[in-house]
Amino acid sequence: DFMQASWDIEEVQAKGIQHLASFVKDKSAFPCLLKCTEVITCAMKTHIDSPELHVAGCTLLLEILSQALEQGVMVDLDECVASCLLHTVRKHSENEEFLSSLCTLLMMVSASEVAAENLRKVGVIPDLLSILRRFLHNDEICFSCCAVLWSLAVSENNGDQAVLESAVPVTSAVLQQHLQNGVVAESACSALWALSLQGCVTDSDCEPTAALLLDALRMNPERAVLVKNASLALASLVRLSETAALAILLDSKGSGIELIKDQYHLHFDEPGVAEALCLLINEMAQYDEVMLDMRSQKMEKLLSEIKLQFPFS
């Protein structure tokens, strides 16, 4: 109430945020802090020229949302809050360190379907892509932005086809840059899966995108979630175009079929991985030429193994 009565006085907002922050460690205060997210973001938007207030507000929101995620509480931030966060991102578009925190905050916010939809409505995607292009070297920013892209692209009521299509080359650049960083590569593979699921990968991009996903599998074979998401992304690409299926068969760095077999044997006790690989194999089998090649490489033997391992799935 104190903050809302004096929106125009920066010192009141700063002191209010500072005082709210003192309750963060008090678990009993958490339900009340959850109700303060809009007040905090509005203070940040009202005093757009105060970097100190923005840092304090962002830090407090991160604390509140971290606790919410730990407790399994989904925070459905409204369109006004989403708009405030986007204003803050734009105001600090050159500040790499602060953007890193802001992008982490956006990632936490986008875990809620309602909040993700509100971020999409206020037009956050072009800003995310701009941040990625500028800070491609920053693994924290790349990880967070790709996670947000996944949350936004995976939504079925998406009206941003052209915008999402422009996200494909940027996300591919992230994956190319961070192939050896399993955490970032996993996030980029998830984003590419969501984008390919929405049909955002053009026919000319299918082959290079498939080759890149195969590279991600080769570089991070131990990461089950990455293997699953990269396989699902490949399945979506193959559904879009036979070119992607042929790219898997004829990959210059080695047989894609052998890679699929290796991934299954490495994660034979992971039903999610097995299911994703089966989906990929099924999509590839829709093309006669590809199916003949898979048969010659004894793919039936692998499918029999999977069937024995998961008889009730």
UniProtKB/TrEMBL annotation:
Supply the alphabetized keyword list: ATP-binding, Kinase, Nucleotide-binding, Serine/threonine-protein kinase, Transferase
Give the organism the record lists: Oriolus oriolus
Q: What is this protein called?
A: Serine/threonine kinase-like domain-containing protein STKLD1
What is the organism lineage in this UniProt record?
Answer: Eukaryota, Metazoa, Chordata, Craniata, Vertebrata
State which gene encodes it.
Stkld1_1
Q: What is its EC number?
A: 2.7.11.1
One GO MF term attached to the UniProt entry: ATP binding
Q: Which reaction does it catalyse?
A: L-seryl-[protein] + ATP = O-phospho-L-seryl-[protein] + ADP + H(+); L-threonyl-[protein] + ATP = O-phospho-L-threonyl-[protein] + ADP + H(+)
Coiled-coil portions: none
Which Gene3D superfamilies does the annotation name?
Leucine-rich Repeat Variant
